[in-house]
Sequence to fold (674 residues):
Amino acid sequence: MTATRRPTLADVAREVGVSAKTVSRVLNEDGPSSPETRRRVLDAVARLGFQPNLMAKSIRVGGPDTTVGLVVPDLGNPFFGSVAGGIEEAVRGRGLTLLMGSSDDDPEREHALIRTFLARQVSVLMVAPAVGADHSHLKAHRAARMPVVFLDRPGNGLTADTVVSSNRAGTQEGVAHLIARGHRRIGFIGDLPTRLYTRRERIAGYRAALAEAGLPYDRTLVADAHDPAGAAEATARLLARAAPPTALLSGNNVMTIGVMTEVSRSRRKDVAVVAFDDVPMAAILDPALTVIAQNPVAMGELAGVVAIERLEGDRSRARTIMVETRLVPRGSGELPG
Amino acid sequence: MTATRRPTLADVAREVGVSAKTVSRVLNEDGPSSPETRRRVLDAVARLGFQPNLMAKSIRVGGPDTTVGLVVPDLGNPFFGSVAGGIEEAVRGRGLTLLMGSSDDDPEREHALIRTFLARQVSVLMVAPAVGADHSHLKAHRAARMPVVFLDRPGNGLTADTVVSSNRAGTQEGVAHLIARGHRRIGFIGDLPTRLYTRRERIAGYRAALAEAGLPYDRTLVADAHDPAGAAEATARLLARAAPPTALLSGNNVMTIGVMTEVSRSRRKDVAVVAFDDVPMAAILDPALTVIAQNPVAMGELAGVVAIERLEGDRSRARTIMVETRLVPRGSGELPG
DNA sequence: TTGAAAGCGCTAACAG
DNA sequence: CTGTTAGCGCTTTCAA
Fold:
């Protein structure tokens, strides 16, 4: 069995009886070529099943690869999956392909992935930063004109384009929704660590809504958790208080699972809930879950668009693009306080 | 502002005053090198921020790139996101990176992605095939020892390693669960097109369960839909029959949204439901949703393991790995018929 | 309209 | 222990 080597440009050239450069010219529609040569070259290409080697192509220019390197905390999280889909949609037209990896929210893994991507000469680097990660080491690459885009959370130690949700305003709107329905004691169940950007922004929105309504901020109404089980416990503790909250704001989709599990388990029909981030079956829950919906696909698309503009030479100041969230009232926020 | 070119091996060599090969040797721990040289090279590497160019490295050997090309129908679907996470986990240790793209279940887009991946010299190609896609053109590449793994669905026109869920047995178990609770008229709501592999397997499991119980197969109890809205309509139609089904089997997670929306909307408490594929809030629904859970992470991991074995020279026959589904009774399947 | 030569960044093969 | 040469597959000069 022969080792079936892939045909190269030279193979095609030999087959046709022209130089490699001529084949290259025909294929890239670079420079002129006679219709006759053209036809014969394309013929041979088809016959041999020739596929140009993109690696070689990139190395030639010493230039970047035609990929977008994307680092997210977790590929399995549909939020990031949708973001990735949006990016792909936006950059496909430019011939860019997605190179992806999960950091598991570990700064070291994130760093390792970024290094791999850089070594692969990605044309664009997009990162949803892990808590505690530092990105100052990317300065040199940005100087070398490689676009860097931070997603969902800003980077640290590097000013670069950033695409985030309107976490603060969205949460504020959600809490205001509850206040408007008479709620005065509103619990907040957020994720950990508390210094996570999205967590900080969302709690800021929570506090802003309270402040605007002239309500005091009660620290004891704020709970934290790592996962659904923890969120369920936190919810149970809050609801067991002497003066329990009459409404809860769930800080993200993972927390929501725990919060709703506990509300449902305890059969408390007297507690209103608003959740940050939409979830598939929200409308079917009883009561239907009111959410502050994000738009991950749009986030990805915008990130892709910005990156392309940068690749095309846009040298303007780094932008922070805020993608609007949308309050979707479905019932669970309607319970009067 | 200088164009800040990335430092190359030659730059490092010049800095230290040795040859490029020596630097290469130190970095790859290939051949011997004096501790002194070693130190000075590593020093310069750090000082210059040198990162080896992986593209050049690959092209050198003429060998494959260190990537796994993965084509899925939809990046935003958490099922495929989790599969991707499993693959990454399994291949990271081998230094492989994921190159991903969505086909949107369009054979042409799938084909275009595959061509791009091949042009990039991926070391492994993994595909969740779109309906109607043909993969016979990959034969040459397999002959050239590039592992091909089909995910979730088998490929067409090419025998290759394949990782799928136990669709048939799982569905059979789910339907048997309903039959055991007295149900005799069980509706099936599946996706389209009906020739989709997973759809065919699941309906086969449905029929097998009926047959085993000596129940007739009633075509009119089978409905199809493209999306949640269609599934909701189909459900409504089924439930509006003169002799409505007393139980429903939902063919996948997208259908489930529509099915449950309609069951919930119509306040029918007299219909049992079992859904293929788990969904995040299943346990909180009322009644809690009984599911036939898949294990997408395991599917990805197994695909990764097989691919690595192939890369390491395993030339044995193509395998089909079936990942067991698991019936998770949560209540919605308990309603007696 | 076409070709020859050189080189992208790296490493295998052979010296020294 | 270290250097030189050659070449991966392609494209960019520069000539013909």
Notes: The mean pLDDT of chain B is 93.
